[in-house]
Specification:
Two copies of one chain form a homodimer.
Chain A lengths: L7 H16 L6 H7 L4 H7 L3 H6 L1 H15 L6 H17 L2 H12 L2 H23 L5 H24 L9 H16 L3
């Protein structure tokens, strides 16, 4: 058997999500995940340290996407506008994966251990955003504050989007992100 | 021996901090902490689940302080101003404990496991602040955004305060909190 498997990582992620949703997080084994993906346990462990990490590996890709979008923002853009560009990039990616994100939210919401891991990943996302802003020449505290504002807006906007009935306004995550950022601006201004 | 010990909890917290700083986090045992505080291990475990929790118990008091300050803010205060009042209350309490906070920061900074715990406590602080704002009638997303802004400002201001040379401006944490909040407002406005 060849060591290389086309999109093994993505298949393992998808199988993890499905099995956690169907059977529960505790009940699912790595052997079952590998079998569902048509791969071996050995291949699973080549990609992930454990079943929990397979649920969170998307966060690393998200981090890379946000950092790249901040770096690509026009040189003259204010820090909050560079952050807004990053949020728009994240929103465009999330919008295509609403069903998966709903499953993921339901799984994480019922396990404190997974909620903690999510929080830690979000902290690392904030730090990466702040680093990307500093590399644009933004001062330390402004970079930190803009990054915190950005991840707060993203988290709250995604929650709102996943929580709403989308029967007739399907997928307008971009609009919700913009509205939430506008609300942060209003809140900060003391409205 | 009486079960009741005057300020046992505070003495255990102080002993924990001292021993972690002197001997390191891993090397310190609960038996040593109890001995330093002049108490028994049994008393330690009546207050804390483990040595790590003894380092973080101040966070619960901080959470109660912030929630009380938000509740006590004038009815007409905007959410961000209620948050500012809470930050001022926290700052007044921190300002008296600079040396302890420096020790604590150094210990946490060198242990990923403790940094994660700090992040989780900060997440719980944000949720508690948002809850206090909602009880004032603030809408969900404005409460969440104001709370996130508040904990971000507090964390960044305290880091800045602990990092500065205070030989001639000792303890002006209150001023730094105000300046950081003003900076958040400027950043959000796109300055």
């Amino acid at each position: 058997m060849s060591r290389w498997q086309p999109n093994a990582r993505g298949r393992l992620e998808q199988a993890t999500l499905e099995l956690f949703a169907e059977r529960g997080y505790e009940q699912t084994t790595v052997a079952e995940i590998a079998a569902r993906a048509g791969l071996t346990e050995r291949t699973f462990f080549r990609h992930f340290a454990d079943k929990r990490e397979a649920l969170f590996s998307g966060q690393d890709a998200l981090e890379a996407l946000l950092v790249a979008a901040v770096a690509a923002a026009p040189e003259a853009a204010a820090p909050i506008d560079a952050v807004a560009a990053a949020l728009a990039a994240a929103g465009a990616q999330f919008a295509r994966r609403r069903e998966d994100l709903l499953l993921r939210q339901a799984i994480i919401g019922t396990h404190p251990e997974l909620r903690e891991r999510e929080l830690i990943k979000l902290g690392s996302l904030t730090a990466a955003l702040a680093g990307a802003l500093r590399r644009r020449g933004v001062a330390d505290s402004a970079a930190g504050l803009s990054a915190e504002a950005g991840t707060a807006v993203l988290r709250i906007a995604v929650e709102r989007w996943l929580g709403q009935d989308t029967s007739d306004s399907a997928g307008d995550l971009d609009g919700i992100i913009r509205a939430t950022l506008a609300e942060l601006k209003a809140v900060a201004a003391g409205a």
